[in-house]
Amino acid sequence: MALLYTIRDNIHGNFNQERESMDHQLGIVVVEDDYIQSYTLKVLLESLNYKVLGVADSATKAIEMAEELNPDLILMDIILNDQMDGIDAAIKIQESSDVQIIFITGTNEFYRKRVDKTRFSTFLTKPLTKHVLVQALEECLVTGEINQAPWEV
Fold it and tell me: Angle at CA 70, nearest 5°, toward 25 and 116?
């Protein structure tokens, strides 16, 4: 049993060392209009050694932050208290940036056709678990791939 723990620790240790060297270069913007959820995401991301460049509570602020901060990834809630929603913001942001976007929402099928018009990395349904978020971040940031069929997540 001790050997299994040693192997596991070595595998995770090597992966964490690789990720830590990358983390200093990665910047994430969180777009969420619910204060508790945005704060929770920010704290969780920071505890995982990701750099949170900013938190936007509206589509308008998200667009401004994306232009000013040039993040590597945006965690984008779809339903926002604004004239625009997260999908509108993503479309606008992607006119001038190749930033990866992970959409987060409480509902999924209603927005599917509109989300498919964007270049998104994945689509997560609330409530998020730490495991699901970590898996999505690692897929996006380590591989750099954009998933065009994320509905199975």
Answer: 105
